[in-house]
Design a protein that fits this description.
Layout (H helix, E strand, L loop, with lengths): L11 E12 L2 E6 L2 E4 L2 H7 L6 E6 L7 E7 L1
Antiparallel strand pairs: 1-2, 1-4, 2-3, 4-5
Amino acid sequence: MIRGRILKNWEEGVGVLHRLDSDEGLPAATIGPVRICLPPELVETLRPHVGERVSVLRTDDIARPYRVRFCGR
């Protein structure tokens, strides 16, 4: 099984969102060539954007630890 990467603070995954699934029960996204583990609350935000270019940034902000940006098709 391919393991997903957990982003470190201020690390960003950018590329085409190819798929959303789970990795050992944790939500995961394949963005470009990288598989990233995500918090469950981001899955529904990202789902409508499969096939589009996205950016997921992990921050050190406790109230909002992930930022998502949609860059279009």
